[in-house]
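Whiteboard transcription, Tuesday session. T.W. wrote the C-alpha cells on the left side:
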C-alpha cells in the first residue's frame, strides 16, 4: 500500500551576502525545518554562518550577472522577475523572509505562503528619500529611481496577493503592511544572541557607542554632531555607503573603529556609558544587544525602538534634530551624575531583564504558534523539527 508523499517545505530569502539581523532570523526559521531548501536571488556561502552554509541553497539567474556580488542593489529593477523565476511548484508550504522581493515568489494552487516581513520593499516605500534623495544619489540614479518607483510599488502590492498570511517583525512594520498591502499581520519580534553578553562584566567608561551600517536612515550624523557639540566621546563601529560623508563631519570627539569582531563589539558594549540609536529602524537588534550588556539606550522615539527600549532602560528624543538629541544627552548626563551606585545597579538589572525577553527560543515558539494557527491543513506541518 503506497503512502502519500510528505508535504514539502521551501524557505525563501531575498539574498544571502552576509550575516545581519535578517539572516539570523532566517537561520532560526531554517532550524525549525531542517530539510527545507532555501531559495534566494543570490548566495555566497562563505559569507554565511555554518548553519546556513550547510543548507541546500538555490539561487536565481541573478547569480550569474556581472559584478552582482558587490553591486546587487543596482539590479533592483530585475529582482521581481528573478524571484518569480524560481520554481517552487513542488512545495506545499512556503515561508519567505522578506525585506525586498522574497514575498513575490510564485506558488502552486493550494500551497500555503507565510511571509515574515522585515519591511515592505524598503528602497521604494518609506526609505526612498534615504537612498535616492537629493545628496544621496546622483541625478541620473535619482531620475531612474523616480521613474521606476511606481512600477516597483505596483509590483510589490500585486505580489502581496500571493501571500496567505503575514508576520511582521514589529508593530511598526505591521502598520506599514496594513497601509501598503491592506493586510493585517501577526507580530513576532526578532531576537539577539544574548549569550555573547551574558557573562561579560559591566565596566562603564565615559564614551557613547554606536554599532551598525552607515546607511542614511541610521542618522549617524545626528550622533556625531550632538556629541561634538557637547564634547562627549563617541565610538562608532561599522562601515557603509555614508562613511566618507560621516568622517568629514567628525571631530576629535569621534572615533571610527571600522568593522569589529563579535568579541570586540561585546567588550565595547560592556564599557559604554550609553548606546545611541538615532534613526528610525524597522525593529533594531543593537538596542537589545546593548541592554543585554546592561547599557541604557538613547533612541529616537519612532519605529522599532519603542517596542524594545522602555523608560526604565533608556531615554527618547522625539524630533530628528541635533538640538533634540543634545537636550536628551544633557538630561541623561545630569541623571548619571546623581544616579549613585544603587541607581546604576538598578539600571543595569532593568536593561538585562528587558533584553532577556528577546531570545531565539521565544522567537521560534511565537513563530510556530502563528504558523499552527494560520495553516488549515495541519499535515503540512509534518516537516517541523521534532519537538515543535
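and on the right, the sequence the group agreed on:
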Amino acid at each position: 500500500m503506497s503512502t502519500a508523499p510528505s508535504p514539502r517545505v521551501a524557505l525563501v530569502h531575498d539574498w544571502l551576502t552576509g550575516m545581519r539581523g535578517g539572516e539570523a532570523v532566517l537561520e532560526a526559521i531554517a532550524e525549525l525545518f531542517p530539510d527545507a531548501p532555501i531559495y534566494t536571488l543570490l548566495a555566497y556561502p562563505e559569507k554565511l554562518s555554518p548553519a546556513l552554509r550547510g543548507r541546500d541553497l538555490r539561487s536565481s539567474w541573478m547569480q550569474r550577472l556581472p559584478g552582482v556580488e558587490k553591486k546587487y542593489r543596482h539590479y533592483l529593477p530585475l529582482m521581481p522577475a528573478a524571484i518569480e523565476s524560481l520554481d517552487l511548484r513542488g512545495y506545499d508550504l512556503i515561508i519567505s523572509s522578506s525585506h525586498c522581493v522574497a514575498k513575490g515568489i510564485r506558488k502552486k494552487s493550494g500551497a500555503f505562503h507565510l511571509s515574515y516581513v522585515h519591511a515592505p520593499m524598503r528602497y521604494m516605500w518609506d526609505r526612498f528619500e534615504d537612498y535616492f534623495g537629493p545628496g544621496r544619489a546622483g541625478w541620473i540614479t535619482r531620475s531612474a529611481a523616480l521613474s521606476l518607483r511606481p512600477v516597483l510599488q505596483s509590483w510589490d502590492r500585486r505580489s502581496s496577493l500571493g501571500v496567505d498570511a503575514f508576520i511582521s517583525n514589529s508593530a511598526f512594520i505591521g502598520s506599514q503592511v496594513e497601509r501598503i498591502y491592506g493586510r493585517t499581520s501577526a507580530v513576532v519580534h526578532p531576537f539577539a544572541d544574548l549569550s555573547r553578553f551574558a557573562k561579560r562584566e559591566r565596566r562603564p567608561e565615559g564614551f557613547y557607542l554606536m554599532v551598525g551600517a552607515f546607511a542614511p536612515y541610521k542618522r549617524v550624523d545626528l550622533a556625531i554632531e550632538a556629541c561634538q557639540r557637547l564634547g562627549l566621546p563617541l565610538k562608532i563601529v561599522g562601515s557603509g555607503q555614508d562613511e566618507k560623508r560621516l568622517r568629514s563631519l567628525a571631530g576629535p570627539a569621534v572615533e571610527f573603529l571600522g568593522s569589529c569582531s563579535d568579541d570586540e563589539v561585546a567588550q565595547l558594549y560592556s564599557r559604554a556609558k550609553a548606546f545611541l540609536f538615532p534613526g528610525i529602524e524597522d525593529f533594531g537588534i543593537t538596542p537589545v544587544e546593548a541592554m543585554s550588556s546592561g547599557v541604557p539606550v538613547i533612541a529616537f522615539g519612532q519605529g522599532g525602538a519603542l517596542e524594545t527600549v522602555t523608560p526604565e532602560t533608556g531615554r527618547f528624543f522625539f524630533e530628528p534634530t541635533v538640538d533634540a538629541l543634545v537636550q536628551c544627552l544633557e538630561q541623561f548626563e545630569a541623571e548619571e551624575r546623581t544616579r549613585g551606585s544603587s541607581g546604576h545597579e538598578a539600571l543595569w538589572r532593568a536593561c538585562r531583564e528587558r533584553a532577556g525577553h528577546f531570545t531565539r527560543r521565544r522567537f521560534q515558539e511565537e513563530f510556530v504558534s502563528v504558523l499552527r494557527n494560520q495553516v488549515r491543513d495541519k499535515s503540512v506541518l509534518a516537516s517541523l523539527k521534532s519537538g515543535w
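Someone added at the bottom: DSSP finds 13 helices and 13 strands in the chain.
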